């Protein structure tokens, strides 16, 4: 038994398989062949599934995870830095904000951060169940979604509309000096995407690679370690990159220019990272339970990498 799959003795005949098919199968990478519907792990109390059912299950779960990941990413880019949410302000006994280096100790995060932690949970599920290749493919598709969002917003701004323009053809701002809603969202989304594209790509790739680094280091054990270890490192990279790019390149960070900028940037970085740290720690339980449940449902080897149990009675039970 290797990796939870039965070992076929060398030279043994494989019914229904031609030599060409065997050679082709041997050329398939392990993280791809493990999810082929022709292979399934034997769980006690769960009967074997036919290939059509197994295919529908595995591809269906993958589509849900990938769809949730990409939808969260698109929402993140559209909402982006359109609003900052005040989580907590440190105050003294008089109820006045406490200052550090002339800056109020107010912890705030961009509204676009709210759906972000779910993207790391999805890539960890895909990495665990389907392997690095598929996880990286979803990450790259996320980059394509970034470009698609930008393209739609850019074209939408070029086409003629019903907004009021002045004699020079420029959009007329309202009494609060704001552009029409679409163009405000467009400008903020451009800034958010510019800041997040590089950070997102680096952080997600770091998440996938660190996940598999811990998986190799622990021989597939300690699921909680590779989940938290990969997510915390990648989210630190993401948070630092997003804040710095948003301020220095996109110029979209609400800072007080009359006060020192470094403490304000550190406060934004610290707040964002603590938020993501809490989310990462909280997702340990659903990831641990979910990966074990999905491994059984999809008839994949257990996440902890232990040898396959002996086949039980052919009775559909548990997550069957």
What does this structure look like?
- With 320 residues, the protein is mainly alpha-helical.
- The chain has a domain at 69-166 and 182-297: Arp2/3 complex 21 kDa subunit ARPC3, CATH 1.10.1760.
- Helices cover 57% and strands 5% of the residues.
- The protein has helices at residues 19-27, 30-33, 51-79, 116-130, 132-158, 181-217, 223-248, 261-282, 284-297, and strands at residues 84-89, 99-100, 103-104, 106-110.
- It has a two-stranded antiparallel sheet. Strands 2-3 form a two-stranded antiparallel ribbon.
- Helix 3 (51-79) crosses helix 5.
- The protein starts with 18 loop residues before the first helix and ends in a 23-residue tail after the last helix.
- Mean pLDDT is 75; it is low at 1-27 and 305-320.
- Indicate the CATH architecture of the domain at 69-166 and 182-297: Orthogonal Bundle
Query: Main β-sheet, in a few words?
Result: 2 strands, antiparallel
Multimeric state of these chains? Answer: single chain
Instruction: State the shape.
Output: globular
- Termini separation comes to 23 Å
Unreliable stretches, pLDDT < 50, 5 or more residues?
A: 1-27, 305-320
Could you please say which CATH topology of the domain at 69-166 and 182-297 applies here?
A: Arp2/3 complex 21 kDa subunit ARPC3
Helix content: 55-70%
Radius of gyration: 25 Å
| Pattern of helices and strands | HHHEEEEHHHHHH
Query: How many beta-strand runs?
Result: 4
CATH top level class name of the domain at 69-166 and 182-297: Mainly Alpha
Number of helices: 9
What is the residue-mean pLDDT, rounded to a whole number?
Answer: 75
Strand arrangement in the largest pleated sheet: 1-4
